[in-house]
Design brief:
Blueprint: E1 8-9, H1 22-32, E2 45-49, E3 64-74, E4 81-92, E5 99-100, E6 106-107
Antiparallel strand pairs: 1-4, 2-3, 3-4, 5-6
């Protein structure tokens, strides 16, 4: 069984200790204008961290595995890019719909020709 871990939040730049972040500061302005809700987040990067299992015939559809999303923002004082949040989760491998490229060739999940599918 896969257990979900506790999420992590880093509130200060690891380099200079500032709590001001580039994307967060811009987001404050959009909140003041009423464009973005208070719970909306807008990091510079929102990156999924998980094993690439899709398309591997040895991995059964429906298997659950640990995964995470990492938010990265930049320090507004010194410019250091750093992780602000790590959100852990559990992902279930689902079947990817078949994709077709130029000439009707079947392609893999990233849209690249996949000879094993043709």
């Amino acid at each position: 069984m896969v257990a979900k871990r506790e999420d992590i939040h880093f509130s200060q730049c690891p380099n200079c200790g500032s709590e001001e972040r580039v994307a967060e500061e811009l987001l404050k302005e959009t909140r003041l204008l009423g464009i973005a809700p208070d719970n909306f987040k807008c990091p510079i990067f929102h990156v999924p961290i998980m094993p690439i299992l899709q398309g591997d015939p040895n991995v059964p559809i429906g298997i659950k595995f640990s995964s995470a999303f990492v938010d990265i923002d930049g320090c507004a004082e010194c410019g250091t890019l750093y992780i602000t949040d790590v959100m852990y989760g559990v992902t279930e491998l689902k079947k990817v719909p078949e994709l077709y490229g130029p000439g009707g060739a079947r392609v893999g999940p990233q849209g690249m020709p996949n000879p094993s599918l043709n």
